[in-house]
């Protein structure tokens, strides 16, 4: 694109090696001014890791408390979306849902109207692929370089900078975003053009929800047969049934601890994305659709704030084995 500045600039003078760890990429120290909008469960630790990697991070969130926490962690606070993005080389949005990203992106005070030409916009939120494509077109028309980069790995992955990131966009834009993505993730894969990162994330959420449901059914089944679930989980994890849900969530599920993690509300949103996108493509996802119904039922029962592994509560209920 004509008149574009490189999104990632080399900075030497302001860099203080005693206080900041530089990010080494292709033999040069590359640091950017990075705006992060949405400092929630995921956005705050991601912004904090960007500070630790030596980037100049400016954050904005709807509630001031989260901005204050970023400032305490080494970032700067912005007073609005426009204030956050104005001087940013890279802008990351980490917001709950499609309408949130649309509202931050659009309008006179929004991201697209106020970001500088040539800035990279990484939307790390999980949103509808069709919305991601539409927003990418609107951003490109203003000289902003859009990358959809939804993440997997949960709060722990965000804290440990170990997220898996599925990236959609133009190859050159993805490469320009890579040093920033590498500060928050460990597996970064360019999967195709704009919107395809969101499509891959939808597939991710389909697999995760279905796996949680099957692990929940297995646990209630094992308990009904009075098998020691801890031993069962250990041996199952070593065989073909082994999976990350067993590794990371089964023990807490067996103990009926459902602290989020990833909220039922958000997984309900994601399964809406999956079922709509599957329908649009003419693909049948019977197990996914069933799991989407169960996630919706769990939410309707008032459990939207629990971890998605609370699907186990429904299995218990359907089996007449609820504990309360
Ligand atoms: P969250 O609700 O904790 O954080 C969202 C933040 O955005 C909140 O702090 C909120 O105040 C802020 N916000 C909302 N609208 C805003 C606006 N208009 N302007 C400024 N700030 C605004 O959500 P989260 O768990 O961090 O998830 C964010 C996204 O990442 C979601 O799309 C989610 O599906 C996805 N995700 C979450 C996880 C997880 O484990 N939590 C894992 C992978 C992906």
What this model shows, in words?
With 324 residues, the protein is α/β, with parallel strands linked by helices. The N and C termini lie far apart (62 Å). The chain has helices at residues 43-52, 64-72, 81-85, 98-105, 111-114, 129-141, 154-159, 171-182, 196-224, 229-237, 244-248, 250-254, 264-281, 286-303, 311-318, and strands at residues 9-10, 24-25, 28-31, 33-37, 56-60, 76-77, 90-93, 120-123, 145-148, 151-152, 163-169, 185-192. The protein has 2 domains: 31-192, 3-Layer(aba) Sandwich (Rossmann fold), CATH 3.40.50.720; 200-318, N-(1-d-carboxylethyl)-l-norvaline Dehydrogenase, domain 2 (Orthogonal Bundle). The model is unreliable at 1-29 (pLDDT under 50). The longest helix has 29 residues, at 196-224. The chain is 49% helix and 15% strand. It has 15 helices and 12 strands. Strands 4, 5, 6, 7, 8, 9, 10, 11 and 12 form a 9-stranded mixed β-sheet that branches. Strands 1-3-2 form a 3-stranded antiparallel β-sheet, with no helix packed on it. The structure holds nicotinamide-adenine-dinucleotide. Nicotinamide-adenine-dinucleotide binds at residues 37-43, 60-63, 66, 94-96, 100, 103-104, 125-126, 151-152, 154-155, 262, 266. Residues 37-43, 60-63, 66, 94-96, 100, 103-104, 125-126, 151-152, 154-155, 262, 266 line the site of nicotinamide-adenine-dinucleotide (NAD).
Got a strand count?
12
Counting copies of identical and different chains, the oligomeric state is single chain
Task: Give the ligands present.
Answer: nicotinamide-adenine-dinucleotide
Tell me the domain tally. 2
Sketch the topology as an H/E string, one letter per element.
EEEEHEHEHEHHEHEEHEHEHHHHHHH
Q: Poorly predicted ranges (pLDDT <50, ≥5 residues)?
A: 1-29
- The CATH class designation of the largest domain is Alpha Beta
- Mean pLDDT rating: 92
Radius of gyration: 21 Å
The number of helical runs is: 15
CATH structural architecture of the largest domain? 3-Layer(aba) Sandwich
- What do we call the CATH homologous superfamily of the largest domain? NAD(P)-binding Rossmann-like Domain
Biggest β-sheet strands, sense, barrel? 9 strands, mixed
Estimate the helix proportion, in percent.
Answer: 40-55%
Distance between the termini: 62 Å
Share in β-strands: 15-25%
């Amino acid at each position: 694109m004509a008149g574009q500045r490189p999104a990632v600039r080399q900075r030497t003078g302001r860099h203080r090696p005693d206080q900041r760890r530089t990010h080494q990429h292709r033999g040069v120290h590359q640091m950017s001014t990075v705006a992060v909008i949405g400092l929630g469960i995921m956005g705050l630790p991601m912004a904090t890791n960007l500070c630790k990697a030596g980037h100049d991070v400016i954050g904005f969130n709807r509630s001031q408390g989260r901005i204050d926490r970023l400032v305490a962690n080494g970032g700067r606070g912005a007073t609005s979306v426009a204030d956050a993005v104005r001087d940013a080389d890279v802008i990351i949005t980490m917001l709950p849902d499609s309408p949130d990203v649309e509202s931050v992106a659009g309008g006179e005070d929004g991201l697209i109207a106020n970001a500088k030409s040539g800035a990279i916009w990484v939307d790390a939120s999980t949103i509808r692929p069709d919305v991601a494509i539409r927003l990418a077109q609107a951003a490109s028309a203003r000289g902003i370089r859009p990358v959809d980069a939804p993440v997997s790995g949960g709060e722990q992955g965000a804290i440990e900078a170990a997220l898996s990131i599925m990236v959609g966009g133009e190859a050159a834009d993805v490469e320009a975003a890579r040093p920033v993505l590498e500060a928050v993730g460990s597996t970064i894969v360019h999967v195709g053009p704009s919107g395809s990162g969101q499509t891959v994330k939808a597939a991710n959420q389909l697999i995760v929800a279905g796996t949680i449901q099957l692990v929940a059914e297995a646990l209630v089944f094992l308990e009904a047969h009075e098998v020691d679930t801890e031993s069962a989980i250990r041996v199952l994890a070593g065989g073909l049934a082994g999976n990350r849900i067993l590794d990371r969530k089964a023990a807490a599920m067996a103990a009926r601890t459902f602290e989020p993690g990833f909220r039922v509300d958000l997984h309900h949103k994601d399964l809406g994305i999956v079922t709509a996108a599957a329908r649009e493509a003419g693909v049948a996802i019977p197990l996914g659709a069933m799991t989407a119904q169960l996630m919706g039922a769990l939410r309707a029962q008032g459990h939207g704030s629990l971890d998605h592994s609370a699907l186990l509560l429904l299995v218990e209920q359907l089996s007449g084995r609820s504990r309360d």
